[in-house]
Write a structure and sequence with these properties.
89 residues; 434 Repressor (Amino-terminal Domain); 4 helices; 0% strand
Length: 89
């Protein structure tokens, strides 16, 4: 059985792309990929960067989920009604 980095398992399970994760801390996706694959040393600084990146992605997603819940609650009963708005499919 092959061994897989916890970071990768979490990313894949929760659909977090390397570029999204890397963007939050200003590193390249290739750097995070190298950490996942064991190509780069997992220094304390690297671990901290990954932790901060996950914390930020989770915070962003929590905010978006909260906004979506509120918007959905406001239109739940009229979910298929047509309204004025932008054409952003």
């Amino acid at each position: 059985m092959s061994r897989v980095c916890q970071m990768r398992l979490l990313r894949l399970e929760y659909d977090i792309a390397l570029p999204e994760l890397a963007r939050t801390v200003g590193v390249s996706p290739q750097y995070f990929s190298g950490l996942e694959l064991g190509e780069f040393t997992a220094t304390r600084n690297a671990v901290r960067l990954v932790q901060i990146a996950f914390d930020r992605v989770l915070a962003e997603r929590r905010d978006k989920a909260g906004a979506m819940l509120a918007a959905y609650a406001n239109c739940r009963e009229q979910i298929l009604d047509f309204v004025e708005g932008c054409n952003g499919d």
